Amino acid sequence: MLMLRIGLTGGIGSGKSTVAKIFEVLGIPVYYADDAAKQLMNTDDELKKEIIKNFGAEAYHNHTLDRKYIARKVFDNKENLALLNSITHPATIRDAENWMKKQTTPYAIKEAALIFESGSEKFLDYVIGVSSPESLRIDRTMARDNISIDEVRNRMKNQMDEEKKISLCNFKIMNDEKQSLLQQVLALHSQFLQLAEK
Hints:
Elements: E1 4-10, H1 16-25, E2 30-32, H2 33-43, H3 45-55, E3 60-61, E4 64-65, H4 67-74, H5 78-102, E5 107-111, H6 115-118, E6 126-131, H7 134-145, H8 149-157, H9 162-167, E7 171-174, H10 181-197
Parallel strand pairs: 1-5, 1-6, 2-5, 6-7
Antiparallel strand pairs: 3-4
Helix pairs in contact: 2-3, 2-5, 3-5
């Protein structure tokens, strides 16, 4: 039996982490790309070298990434943000691939905001998109990150358009607080189990 590699993505505040947690409750392992990237920036020597080469030695303080320094460098600077992503994505994709090889379940999930932007979809069998009305996404992000509506809109501007992102996905979960998330995840879960058996 071949293990399926499933991507899980969605715009800011769409609730993809909540969906990922439901899959975990069902016994499906989830790779959280954001958390992994943060860890790799401190542990992957090649990646550290690249960050220092492009952003200066000040990027690290006592061998640990200075997040505030990096945030200042990429905030409101699309070129620097694109550069940081182009350095970080290959390392995260490699790490996710190695992680996937170790899983023994019928399918495993990679949760990442930037699946299409990073080219990760090439390494996945299917991608699920979590969609949510914009007003809900704004409210959730403001509450979660304790930021203003303008800050949320700014972050949204840096992301791929929600409709475009969802149109690239093979499966869609609607997280509008009207339809049951659990029912939608359970339906996909049984679908993936069937696909894995083929």
